[in-house]
Amino acid sequence: MPIVFKYYLVKRLNLHVGPQFGFLVSDFDTSEFEDSYKSTDVSGVVGLGLDLPLGFRVDGRYNFGLTEFLPDVKNNVFSLSVGWSIL
Q1: Which residues does 29 contact at the CB level (< 8 Å), separation at least 6?
Q2: Among 84, 82, 87, 2, which Cα is nearest to 49's?
Q3: What is the domain range of residue 67?
Q4: Confidence band (pLDDT; 50, 70, 90) for 17?
């Protein structure tokens, strides 16, 4: 669950910064692993976005883990998204 603030550096270029909170959700039996996994995860989010003509958008974000969800293991994720906004 990210809480990301968007700040426009110039007219179409924006910066994304904020925290992201994760919660362990499972639909299968994890009883043999449940002592290893932590039930929550906190990450930081940084990224850049570009608003293109006709409502198209391109965003790149990097999430870096601040807490360990397994011993000595943190989440680190890079994401790239392309979208279209009708509003």
Answers
A1: none
A2: 82
A3: 5-84
A4: very high
